Fold each of these.
Amino acid sequence: MKPYCFFAHVAFALDARGHASPQATANLIIEINDTTLTSCGNKKHVKVSALTDSQKMELAGEIAMAAALDYLKSEEEFRQFPTQRFVNFDLIRPTYISIRPRPNKVLPNGSKVWRLAQSEADKLRGEPRSIRYPDIERRLAAHPFLKGMSPHHLELLALCAMPTEFDAGQIIFLEGDPANGFYLIETGTVVLEGKTSDGQSVVIDTVSAGEPLGWSWLISPYLWHFDARHGGMYCNLSFWDNAAAASGRWPHP
């Protein structure tokens, strides 16, 4: 299987208002191969071979986002900036990797990160997105959370949304992991679970159809605060691309 390759353009500022004219930027390519995908899937108790292509791509995106954040945290030049924003985070053709030098960083899980010069990054900004669904705007307009949103804004959101399906009991995310998705639940339920002092799981809340999942992305340190598990088979529209970046942060629950 060909690796998943993502292009990330990240802006840094001393405060949230500075993103219009950031003090620093970073352009990255992140490669996620089949071994990394399977290994990270196992940690989430997900059988990667049973996932659809869109589910595999979403999982690869989560891993790539975490890899990008790990790399940026390791670079001293970015530590002075308290705020960061992913202006672009796009799936690209893996052919770009074949002409790259050795990666700037290889994570323990096998994720590879390359740092790009601005001139190279400009070539990638016109790359097409990976998946489009013709009915996505209709589904967004039908969701209660977006009731009353203008057609223009629905069109913009549709460029950043991806339909996703999960099976009963499947883990969506785990407490402490980097948060990188915002969900609009269409059918079914999601159970949010915390841990007691003796490590036992306890249900904190249940999120149902017609509701959003991912509100605490507004709150530092931008990590998942709970485990999320599917209470039953359901469909949702997930946003893990520029829709989150437009709000100033990637989503976190």
Note: The two ends are 32 Å apart (CA to CA).
Amino acid sequence: MVDTAALTGLEGMNSYEVIGNALGISAGAVLIIITIIGIWALIWKGFALWKSANKKSLPWFIALLILNTAGILEILYIFVFSKISFRGKTKPKKKK
């Protein structure tokens, strides 16, 4: 058998080091970036799930729960899709 790790020069490297080498940054910086993206996505996912649950929108709740888009779908749902009704009209805002 051929040792592919030895041929590629990746022997003894973890995935953070491989990604860091490809991007030209340290493994620690890769870990910090991944952590920040994870926290960012978790915050937006929480807001979007809360909003879809309050609107009793089960399809959106399931889609937001299953799909992981680093916050992109969640932001679109909060600011775009949650304000559009399926009848083609936007829902009026409630006055306090």
Note: DSSP finds five helices and no strands in the chain.
Amino acid sequence: MSELGGMILSLAHQLDDAERAELGRLLRSDRVPTPSGDVEPLLTCAEAACRAQCHVETIRRAVARGTLRGSRAGRFLRIAPSDLDNWLRRTSRCQARPPNDRPTRRRTSSSPMREALALLERSVA
């Protein structure tokens, strides 16, 4: 067990049953208090990616890099909506091009297969 985990356990033993129950409820909660005192629900990575209109892995990488603040509840990663909004304001994302605006790939007329077929046709004729 980590040093922090040991400290939390020793402090939890000093609480009475009602305080211990409240602490457990807060630790399991998917809500986080805001500076104004309100409580906002935390987002999963999938919900954050949906709001940001990006891939889930983009959210996970941003948290791993430290550019987006996230918190772990066990093995689950949660993100406060305000943190996601701040990250989106700070992050410059390139705009996706419309599908018909993508550059077309040119086909070369001299592929190895075409050259082999042309050589075969010349040898047969």
Note: Residues 94-98 have pLDDT under 50 and may be disordered.
